[in-house]
Amino acid sequence: MAYLGGSGRREDGCKWALVEAPAQKFFEAVFRRLLNPSLLAEDLGYITSDVREIRKLFGIPGMKVLVFAFFEEDSPYLPHNHEKEAFVYTGTHDTNTVKGKPL
After folding, report:
1. Structure confidence at residue 1 (pLDDT)
2. Which of 35, 58, 70, 90 is most buried, judging by how many CB atoms fall within 10 Å of its CB?
């Protein structure tokens, strides 16, 4: 995984950079430092098994988008397939509104 961090300035003037880190150690540090952090995984698109494992290990809820639900028969976005700990949105900035035209 990678996170935005760093100190000082890079040659291009930016003071932040993506820093590679072992995911489990990163989240262990976050949970040590912050008591009960409010985290949400933006887990839309292609999600690897290691991301799912880290979410489960640390109890980090993911996202479900309803407009994605109706394109395949047993979509994980259908309400009856949602995980108990999930944030559900009708759409995103990348989708049309629910009332708008079909995708």
Report:
1. 78
2. 58
**Residues in contact with 69: Cβ distance below 8 Å, sequence separation at least 6, in sequence order:** 75, 77, 78, 79
Burial of 55-92, coded b for 16+ CB within 10 Å and e otherwise, reads: beebebbbebbbbbbeeeeeeebeeeebeeebeeeebe
- How many Å apart are CA 58 and CA 28, to the nearest integer? 9
Tell me the C-alpha distance between 64 and 46, whole Å: 13
Sign of CA dihedral 59, 93, 44, 54: negative
pTM: 0.72
The size of the chain, in residues, is 103
